Amino acid sequence: MYFLLSSILVSITYVHCLPVGKDCNVIESVVPEECRSIKGENQTDVWIKKEQCREVFEDGYIQWSERMLADPNLTANLDVVYHVEGQATRTRRSAERCPIFTESYIKNATGIQQRSISPWRYLVDFDNNRHPKQLVVAECLCNGCINLETGFETIDGNAHSKPIMWLVNVIKDNVSTKIPITTGCSCVASINQFAS
Fold this sequence. Notes:
Layout: H1 2-17, H2 25-28, H3 43-56, H4 60-69, H5 72-75, E1 80-84, E2 87-91, H6 103-108, H7 112-115, E3 120-127, E4 130-131, E5 134-140, E6 145-146, E7 153-154, E8 159-172, E9 175-189
Parallel strand pairs: 1-3
Antiparallel strand pairs: 1-2, 3-5, 4-8, 6-7, 8-9
Helix pairs in contact: 1-3
């Protein structure tokens, strides 16, 4: 309830502080640090864009991603994908590949992403023209799925690892937009398996 009331108050203040010439600097304290550098055509445009950016950071996935990024123990070994002028480059920090499900691997697997028969890893997606600039996203480790009887990846055309996609609201090039991100991976049956 408090969250809803504070959002309404902030929205009303954004709308009403500008036309009557009131000081809007008080509102700056509720805008996430990353959103404070947003530019616009005029003061009203700036505040509208900052409000949109604030709303982006209230998204549950964005908040989860921010918590992950704040923990250096979790992010120290994550690969980073940098997006610059439409080109993506990757910095490898991990040699993680499609695992073999041995008894010791399963005992040491700490996350659901490691125990899934369609395992994935997390990486940091960095784009300087986006708010948030960094997002934690998933990447499938296998093309096929792990066979629980053998512990090895099976690539027989009957099942494949597929990314689970989610649309998340971001500010990209100062415009509020939705982008697809991968949140995990799933083992799915091939349509060809049933065609005959």
